[in-house]
């Protein structure tokens, strides 16, 4: 028997500034606060398919590539990605959309330096 997965349940991320991070994810992706955990200086944000648990750590120096490179989010309205990033002054990395397998991806960074891949086709169509 093998355990059958249906997707990534959630990601826990350290952030420098909890409110700034919540604001970023709310404005760009429409994520809402699902649970406020003031005793842990954290909030669980997301929607019905994606959950991020953000923990404020004032000493956090920012994202460094110690085995973690990026996380990917499938964007249903991918055609609007560049425009929305431009409206929010979010820098698009690598010169714009990158083709991979059967999908295009746009790479950005959140306020903590975490790289996020925004994908046109879930899993690159694999």
Account of the 3D structure:
This protein is α/β, with parallel strands linked by helices and 126 residues long. It has 2 domains: 8-58, 2,3-Dihydroxybiphenyl 1,2-Dioxygenase, domain 1, CATH 3.10.180; 70-126, 2,3-Dihydroxybiphenyl 1,2-Dioxygenase, domain 1 (Roll), CATH 3.10.180.10. 15% of the residues lie in helices and 33% in strands. The chain has 2 helices and 8 strands. Strands 1-4-3-2 form a 4-stranded mixed β-sheet, with helices on one face. A hairpin with a 4-residue loop joins strand 2 and strand 3 (42-46). The chain is globular and about 45 Å long. 17% of the residues are buried. The model has no long low-confidence stretch (mean pLDDT 93).
Characteristic terms for this protein:
15% helix, 126 residues, 4-stranded mixed β-sheet, 2 domains, 2,3-Dihydroxybiphenyl 1,2-Dioxygenase, domain 1, single chain, alpha/beta, 33% strand, globular
Sequence-ordered SSE layout with sheet pairings:
Layout: E1 11-15, H1 18-29, E2 32-37, E3 42-46, E4 51-56, E5 71-74, H2 81-87, E6 98-100, E7 103-109, E8 115-119
Question: How would you summarize this macromolecular structure in one to three sentences?
Answer:
The chain is of the alpha/beta class. The protein has two helices and eight strands; from the N terminus they run E-H-E-E-E-E-H-E-E-E.
In the CATH hierarchy, the third-tier topology of the largest domain is known as 2,3-Dihydroxybiphenyl 1,2-Dioxygenase, domain 1
Strand content: 25-35%
The overall strand count is 8
What's the CATH C level of the largest domain?
Alpha Beta
Number of domains: 2
End-to-end separation: 23 Å
CATH superfamily of the largest domain, by name, is: 2,3-Dihydroxybiphenyl 1,2-Dioxygenase, domain 1
Determine the number of helices (DSSP H or I, runs of at least 4 residues): 2
Cα radius of gyration in angstroms:
15 Å
Helix and strand sequence = EHEEEEHEEE
Structural class: alpha/beta
Low-confidence stretches: none
